[in-house]
């Protein structure tokens, strides 16, 4: 590289290497054939689908190397600050199509692959989903990686290379969720580079010896953390960052002495034990109690990342007091909260820094993102467990707690309380910025979970409303809509999504609306074909596609939706000629394996679907489908084909939501509560283009003060009462009156998530939806307005916010 003359920093290379020149399909074809032969060891005649997919992956990966190296060198040359995004989850899905799109090879790849006798779409579909996450939190991390690379923000994502990602879901047992292990790494992972040189020994347990100001921790067990790097290329290949995932291995892979004695099981034991740490993604959403393995996983990847960060810093700088000007570490929820104590430990015990200075230094590097208000979902670890697994860290936590208490004697906040270590408090105290993920959520964070700490540290809490990457969620998932956008407002909206407002004048034009409607209709026909192929259910593509896809949780209220479905079915049966708006209700999502109530709701939905879909009298106007194993790829299929987006959580419970944004951008109307980012969506699209219902967050709090709020609501609503009674009478369980006892009793009794109290309001809003559907052209107008006005929800905007408010980093491109 030659140093350029860019006014900005002088690092920008003026010479563009051959690799960045546009590639044609002939060149790409050569590259694919080369990889078929030399990487896969096959000739074209014998190449399987897998061989072709891998050869294409490697050919595309070659094109990502140049921006990747360029970005790394530029960051190094400019001595730029880097972001380290620490996350237990990166729900990246498939990578091939995204990378092809970002390096501008879509047409060339299509042509080259077809020319070699393979169907391009089939090749793309052969890639397994990297399901290294549960839901929103993990998908947000993946969107952030894309945006950081697009914006030229020097960054590393750090996480765990789970051998088995999130479980695979089926409904094999009469509509009950059945979980099996996901095996995405059974085939070679074409994107990653193994880095044996970047390995760290991570210890657990043992003892601590005082040594003057510092301490010496001698762990009892240890595993090896080995790095695997995946380049993440941004839009138009201008920049690429690294996703570095840690795999766990035994320090000594194999006990040869045991083997030689014939004890083969004992011989393999050390390896098996070590590997459990990166074996599975903890199949938890928000309610399950933590386990020792999870704490070890959290420490494992956090400690390896901190060591890697310090190694990189020390290679370039000699004075650790400069760490905060070079390093911004973001903790994605509390899962990496041990980063604070671990960084302090490294600075004090390994570099001899004074304790208070080390705490200040660590704090100046750390940021913490909160994703939940539910106190039960904020991690707490038993003090006993923490002291046993991480004895030195427990000492450091206690000392941080003491000095914080000393500095604020009048306030009653502590990290360690009633024998538990509260990771939310630890994260807050160790971070220089704490952020919520939507405007409403951030206000509630200030007023509820962290009210005391907010009073002590005013200004520390900031808001960064979530966003989604338009490259994957519009350009990749909805190519037809993308073409219409480009035809209407010109090229270049993909990394300047605020430009979608330029669509607005066109919406007045009937021709534009017809095109918009036709795109939706075609996407729906594609989805209907897939549903028919995959599930054997014929759905009417002209019906309204009403979609609720997300993790199953009581606060997300899939049961409110299914109760309304039952009531609607009854109403249609009673009044078949009333001109009902035809609907296909689509559900998708997994429940945490230990979450009994969520699994009961899944089971009920499948049984309601079975009964309703068998009713020939209502078949034309109401169908319920619930395809199993919802994942990123399925979301890419469903969202562009949706008319109605269900965002119906109990107000005050959904921190933000990000699916809600994807739907609006793709021209679906929302039926929703004033919760999370729904509030901001409604503000942007206008209340007349949003179907609002339900209590506000403060009304919910008030409502709960009336202990019989559910009973009253049921009494006041014949429809709701009848729907619950049908379930109780066994209408969906072959006459079994006990099957959904847990669910119906909960609704009639406690109903913490105010399903009953919100039911009538939801019903009414659904009927407003029906009425609106009756005027198709006006529906299209509202849908197009949703697209035009929601460009603000690009994750590029979110990342720009983090860069300015939290990380204090300027972009490199
Ligand atoms: C989600 N949280 C929020 N948590 O529910 C959602 N939790 O409102 C928000 O849009 C999204 O984060 C992004 O900010 C989660 O997804 C988890 O998945 C999770 C996993 C393990 C433990 C706790």
TrEMBL record:
It comes from Roseinatronobacter ekhonensis. It comes from the Bacteria. The modification N6-(pyridoxal phosphate)lysine is found at residue 662. SUPFAM superfamilies: UDP-Glycosyltransferase/glycogen phosphorylase. GO terms for biological process: glycogen catabolic process. Keywords: Allosteric enzyme, Carbohydrate metabolism, Glycosyltransferase, Pyridoxal phosphate, Transferase. Its cofactor is pyridoxal 5'-phosphate. NCBIfam families: P_ylase. InterPro entries: Glycg_phsphrylas, Glyco_trans_35, Pyridoxal_P_attach_site. This is Alpha-1,4 glucan phosphorylase. Its EC number is 2.4.1.1. It catalyses: [(1->4)-alpha-D-glucosyl](n) + phosphate = [(1->4)-alpha-D-glucosyl](n-1) + alpha-D-glucose 1-phosphate. Belongs to the glycogen phosphorylase family. One of its GO terms (molecular function) is glycogen phosphorylase activity. Signal peptide: none annotated. One of its GO terms (cellular component) is cytoplasm. Allosteric enzyme that catalyzes the rate-limiting step in glycogen catabolism, the phosphorolytic cleavage of glycogen to produce glucose-1-phosphate, and plays a central role in maintaining cellular and organismal glucose homeostasis. PROSITE patterns: PHOSPHORYLASE.
